[in-house]
Design brief:
alpha/beta, 7-stranded mixed β-sheet, 6-stranded mixed β-sheet, globular, single chain
């Protein structure tokens, strides 16, 4: 895939970039290693000053970078501005809280006599240069939720961003430079995917984080495992959105529309499988389908657009294959199921779609739909709702709508997911750990759990 900005609203190639050569990659790796040796000794106060400055710059420039993101990957521009604002807020949060999150700890249940020590503590020390392999769907947020904690911990970052968002990738490097971070603290590597393994295997790179597809995650995990290097993986998701009889059906249906189509439906933590108790199924289906039909598909740079194009032509083709397979095998289309009227010949648009009568034989039952396509299931009771929710290779997050406390406890106990959101939409926040189980990956981003992923958790023992 070429490194280029291709406007998904019309297929026009706006900018192309040459991949870095071996000599420049070597220079950047050497710079990262050299910078880390000094940057790791800086104080939390100094790191926080720099990160606050970067956040302020980003907040000031969110209109401009929002338009760049929209042009590169197609998200509605109002959502792009919101993404930039969220990044700035999260950077401020880590600048304010990192020192507390990484404070020295005394081991739990520590007994001086049993250990033979006069004093023992646990200290979190930075690892070194960390490679971040990031996707295009949230081109700022995916990077910032790695970069902010990594830089506050004293690490330095090397970014291999998706090849269709090069302007956003270069903006991030420039943002941290203009904020005053030393050269080499955060570098963007414009490289193809074939160059990732060599960089990951370089002894100067100490760890890696990846958000992306399962094949990409396997490749990074395999190479890192061979080199005995730490990785954090956030891969695909096919999150359940469960609605039980005690739920506020009107509010659940309204939230379900947003939960499915945020970012044009291209979000790992978007609700994708809607599992509704039979007692409220018809009411929910009617309201949900009406909400999906009412969405405005259009130019993502227009302020009133709800759904823009998918990021790539291949992405739309993959989505069409899943829908076509489901229909051929008996699925019922409640709305959508095709390219929207007026956009069949230009841009990579797909209509908001609701499918029901889904069976296990259909590909859409097991594969992730990365676009504005929802699958709707009828559940006879709580047991079947739990079984359907878990009948997926993924386990990123989940949504459950119920006012019954006993049902809540059952879902917390039995749902196989890294997150549980009751009566609201799944979202990420810097204070909450984020990540999944099963084929959705391992490790956690954000919160104290995330900042410690790329630290050397060091036992410091003092003799009696």
């Amino acid at each position: 895939m070429p490194i280029a900005t291709v406007n998904p609203a019309n297929g026009e190639t706006l900018k192309t970039y040459d991949a870095l050569g071996a000599e420049e990659i070597e220079r950047r790796l050497a710079t990262a290693e050299t910078t880390f040796r000094s940057y790791r000794t800086t104080s939390f106060a100094e790191r926080a000053r720099l990160l606050h400055k970067a956040a302020d710059l980003l907040d000031e420039e969110r209109d401009d970078i929002g338009r760049v993101m929209t042009t590169e990957m197609g998200k509605p521009v109002k959502q792009a501005r919101a993404e930039a604002a969220k990044c700035a807020k999260s950077m401020h949060w880590y600048a304010d809280h990192a020192e507390e999150l990484l404070a020295d700890e005394q081991p739990a249940a520590f007994d001086v006599k049993d250990s033979g020590a006069s004093r023992v503590l646990v200290r979190y020390r930075p690892l070194g240069p960390v490679l971040a392999v990031m996707p295009w769907n949230f081109p700022l947020w995916q990077v910032v939720r790695f970069a902010a904690p990594a830089l506050m911990a004293g690490n330095v970052g090397l970014l291999k961003h998706a090849s269709n968002v090069p302007q956003t990738a270069l903006y991030l490097e420039d943002l941290f430079r203009r904020a005053g971070f030393p050269e080499g603290c955060f570098q963007t590597l414009l490289i193809g995917s074939g160059a990732v393994e060599g960089i990951l295997r370089d002894p100067r790179v100490k760890a890696a984080t990846l958000t992306g597809s399962e094949p990409a995650g396997r490749a990074v995990a395999s190479a890192a495992g061979d080199e005995v290097k730490k990785t954090v993986l956030e891969l695909g998701g096919s999150d359940p959105f469960v609605v039980m009889p005690s739920a506020d059906v009107d509010r659940a249906a309204k939230t379900a529309v947003t939960a499915r189509v945020q970012n044009n439906g291209q979000s790992c933590i978007a609700a994708k499988r809607f599992i509704v108790h039979t007692d409220v199924f018809d009411a929910f289906a009617e309201r949900f389908t009406a909400g999906m039909k009412a969405l405005k598909v259009g130019d993502p740079l227009d302020e009133d657009t709800d759904i823009g194009p998918l990021s790539t032509e291949q992405g739309r083709g993959d989505l069409e294959e899943l829908v076509d397979d489901a229909v051929e095998n008996g699925a019922t289309v409640l709305c959508g199921g095709e390219r929207p009227e007026g956009f069949t010949e230009r841009g990579w648009y797909y209509a908001p779609t609701v499918l029901t009568d889904i069976t296990p034989e259909m590909r859409v039952h097991q594969e992730e739909t990365f676009g504005p396509v929802a699958t709707l299931y009828r559940a006879a009771d709580l047991d079947q709702a739990v079984a359907l929710a878990n009948d997926t290779p993924f386990g990123l997050s989940s949504n459950v709508w119920t006012s019954d406390e006993a049902e809540m406890e059952r879902f917390v106990r039995d749902l196989e997911a890294g997150g549980m959101f009751f009566n609201g939409m799944t979202a990420s926040h810097p204070a909450f750990p984020f990540g999944g189980v099963k084929r959705s990956g391992y490790g956690r981003e954000l919160s104290g759990h995330g900042i410690r992923e790329f630290c050397n958790i060091t036992t410091v023992w003092h003799g009696a």
